[in-house]
Write a structure and sequence with these properties.
α1 packs antiparallel against α2, α1 crosses α3 and α4 crosses α6. Helix content is about 65%, strand content about 5%. The relative contact order is 0.07. It has about 170 residues and is mostly helical. The protein has two domains: about 80 residues, no CATH class; about 80 residues, no CATH class. β1 and β2 form a beta hairpin. The protein has a two-stranded antiparallel ribbon.
């Protein structure tokens, strides 16, 4: 069974031996020789480990970012990072959409709130007819005229509900 800590140590020391400063390279080369002498199969285990790692990377389905992408020199290879490269744009779009919906809902609620200032009255006419009337003050009517289409729709809905409640009361 492979000792992964030892394999990782070997890979790190090998990297220093290849790319370190002159003094680091010499010390790392000595450490590599010592590790290879102490563990004769280590070099083969490292090669096997790297093959498996590369094979796992190469077998990654398209559109899926590998957990540990290969590094080529100091520059990352041209890989598809999926949604991570756009995560903040997606989050910002979601927040703006939520705010837009909330703002539209709050704006439409103004029409519904205005409906509370309009009352439904039931009375008998001189001829004995039952009259259902809405009482709207001039100020409320002026505000009604300033509503946009969504607010007017909410106001109409509120008035319909008020009328429905009054009819339900009359009819029992």
């Amino acid at each position: 069974m492979a000792d992964y800590k030892l394999i990782i140590k070997y890979i790190k020391v090998r990297a220093l031996a290849e790319k370190g400063s002159p003094g680091e390279r010499d010390n790392a080369a000595r450490m590599l020789r010592k590790l290879e002498l102490e563990h004769p199969t280590l070099k083969n285990q490292v090669a096997s480990f790297e093959r498996k790692k590369n094979q796992a990377y190469d077998n990654t389905p398209s559109g899926v970012t590998p957990k540990y992408p290969r590094k080529q020199g100091t520059v990352w290879p041209n890989i598809n990072l999926g949604n991570w490269e756009n995560i903040f744009q997606y989050a910002q779009t979601a927040v703006h959409t939520a705010y837009g919906v909330a703002e539209a809902y709050a704006k439409a609620q103004r029409g519904a709130a205005l409906g509370e200032y309009i009352t439904v009255n039931t009375k008998l006419s001189k001829q004995g007819d039952i009259l259902l009337t809405f009482n709207i003050s001039p100020g409320t009517y002026k505000e009604m005229l300033e509503l946009d289409e969504a607010q007017k729709a909410m106001l109409k809905r509120e008035l319909q509900l008020s009328l429905h409640d009054e009819l339900t009361r009359l009819l029992g």
